[in-house]
């Protein structure tokens, strides 16, 4: 439902855009409404992007990966602990389903919200989290990122405040700002196993707060949210009428043997009607390049998100959706095998880094990242977190992501992925150990 009339929204948007444009303004940048020109271009000048696009951030992980590729092209041997995807191949029965669909020439436009058989399978698959939804609430998207983008653009208005985790997946704050909203960070600390603190959430809520983004298991910390805590957070969300966006892309990558899937806030009746669940096939089924994800939404929002899909990309390719049906309805041993392998790799990397001076790695409950506290290494040098990650890469050939790529509270931390092959993890850990042994010995480290 719209919360305001169109003209006031447009006026606020204009104000926010101009304010942000002033903040980000660069020499030569043309900003609508801030010049005497009545069109978006100036004769003879290059065409420049609209002011509001400066709210969009790039993603640290993709920037590091580009640098890794550039170094590898020069012949450098890089051990990557940066990659956010399992080294597994997509299981054969999933690939075969797509091939069969292609052979049957299932290559035309599909319904914008997804093919009915996939929407049915998604709704049915969520019952193992205790989430009861109708297929009409499901919108299939090109990956969880497209779901996040469409939902955030459709759910929030300029000036809305949305609580986002810090550290957290960078797209949250970037998209909230792109929508004209205000991303209000809430902290995740090692002392609380990187779970949100309900008191802090309550403290950060103002009359303008409209949304709360949760992500568990969490990127980059691997933290989870225990069921009792989830209930407490649900209470707060219900009390303040917040739209909850629950990003559950790592929901089935959990390491407690008694827990096949992380608990979902969408299963809590008090907030089910105001919760959007976002998930993806990328991590669970090793399908990062297929671009297949989904959102499960309150009906009115599902309708608008579908309208945005129609405008933005029409549909997800039907043969990709057929692969998704095979993933959900076929044998699930591939997920069990993935979790078993990841659990072993988690142990391998934790073991290899356990006694490195100045590095503390808590064991993550889910996802495939160690969130390494490297403040002990930084304390022996004058390096920033980014400079430490850069030197690890350039000098010792090990790629990591600086915690600051996930928010200000990431200072002093590195994200280390254990989704890669065993030998990659062993080499990466060995190089971190070598670096930590050496660091502080150079005069320039203390300059
Ligand atoms: C927390 C989180 N949400 C969403 C995504 C995006 O997933 P997808 O590949 O489905 O777009 C990622 C990818 O790294 C992620 O870590």
Sheet with the most strands: spatial strand order: 2-8-7-6-5-3-4
Rg computed from alpha carbons, rounded to a whole number of angstroms? 23 Å
Global morphology:
globular
Helix percentage = 40-55%
Name of the CATH homologous superfamily of the largest domain: Type I PLP-dependent aspartate aminotransferase-like (Major domain)
What is the CATH class of the largest domain?
A: Alpha Beta
Number of domains: 3
Question: Which small-molecule species are bound to the chains here?
Answer: pyridoxal-5'-phosphate
Structural class, please? alpha/beta
Q: Count the DSSP helices.
A: 15
Helix-strand pattern: HHEHHEHEHEHEHEHEEHHHEHHEEEH
List segments where confidence is low: pLDDT < 50 over at least 5 consecutive residues. 1-39
Total strands: 12
Summarize the main sheet. Answer: 7 strands, mixed
What is the average per-residue confidence, as pLDDT, rounded to a whole number? 90
Overview of the structural elements:
By secondary structure, the chain is an alpha/beta fold. The chain has 3 domains: about 45 residues, no CATH class; about 130 residues, Aspartate Aminotransferase, domain 1, CATH 3.90.1150; about 240 residues, Type I PLP-dependent aspartate aminotransferase-like (Major domain) (Aspartate Aminotransferase, domain 2). The chain has 15 helices and 12 strands. Strands 2-8-7-6-5-3-4 form a 7-stranded mixed β-sheet, with helices on both faces. Strands 9-12-11 form a 3-stranded antiparallel β-sheet. A two-stranded parallel ribbon has the order 1-10. α3 runs antiparallel to α11, α4 runs parallel beside α11 and α12 runs parallel beside α15. The longest helix is centred in the C-terminal third of the chain and has 21 residues. Pyridoxal-5'-phosphate binds next to α5.
């Amino acid at each position: 439902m719209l919360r305001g009339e169109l003209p006031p929204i447009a006026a606020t948007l204009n104000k926010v855009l101009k304010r942000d444009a002033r903040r980000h303004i660069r020499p030569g940048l043309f900003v609508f409404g801030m010049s005497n020109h009545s069109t978006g271009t100036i004769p003879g000048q290059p065409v420049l992007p609209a002011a509001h696009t400066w709210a969009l951030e790039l993603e640290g992980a993709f920037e590091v990966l580009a640098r890794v590729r550039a170094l590898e092209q020069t012949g450098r041997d890089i051990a990557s602990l940066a990659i956010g995807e399992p080294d597994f191949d997509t299981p054969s029965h999933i690939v075969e389903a797509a091939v069969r669909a292609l052979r049957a020439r299932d290559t035309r436009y599909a319904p914008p919200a997804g093919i009915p058989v996939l929407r049915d399978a998604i709704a049915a698959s969520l019952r193992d989290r205790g989430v009861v939804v109708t297929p009409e609430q499901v919108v299939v998207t090109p990956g969880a990122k497209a779901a996040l983008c469409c939902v955030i653009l459709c759910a929030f208005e300029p000036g809305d405040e949305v609580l986002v985790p810090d550290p957290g997946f960078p797209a949250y704050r970037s998209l909230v700002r792109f929508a004209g909203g205000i991303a209000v960070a809430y902290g995740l600390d090692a002392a609380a196993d990187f779970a949100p603190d309900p008191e802090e959430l309550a403290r950060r809520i103002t009359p303008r707060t409209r949304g709360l983004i949760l992500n568990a298991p969490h990127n980059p910390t691997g933290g989870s949210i225990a069921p009792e805590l989830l209930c407490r957070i649900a209470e707060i969300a219900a009390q303040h009428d917040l739209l909850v966006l629950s990003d559950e892309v790592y929901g089935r990558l959990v390491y407690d043997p008694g827990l096949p899937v992380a608990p979902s806030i969408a299963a809590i009746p008090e907030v089910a009607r105001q919760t959007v669940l976002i998930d993806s096939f990328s991590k669970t089924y090793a399908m990062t390049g297929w671009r297949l994800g989904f959102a499960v939404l309150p009906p009115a929002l599902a309708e608008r998100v579908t309208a945005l899909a129609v405008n933005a990309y029409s549909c997800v390719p039907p043969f990709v959706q057929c692969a998704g049906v095979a993933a959900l309805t076929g044998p699930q041993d591939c997920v069990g095998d993935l979790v078993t392998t990841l659990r072993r790799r988690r142990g391998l990397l934790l073991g290899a880094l356990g006694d490195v001076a100045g590095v503390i790695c808590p064991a993550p409950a889910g996802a495939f990242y160690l969130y390494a506290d490297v403040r002990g290494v930084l304390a022996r040098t004058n390096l920033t977190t980014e400079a430490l990650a850069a030197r690890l890469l350039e000098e010792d050939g090990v790629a990591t992501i600086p915690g600051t790529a996930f928010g200000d509270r990431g200072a002093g931390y590195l994200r280390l992925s254990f989704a890669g092959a065993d030998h990659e993890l062993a080499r990466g850990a060995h190089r971190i150990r070598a670096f930590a042994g050496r660091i502080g010995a150079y005069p320039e480290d203390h300059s």
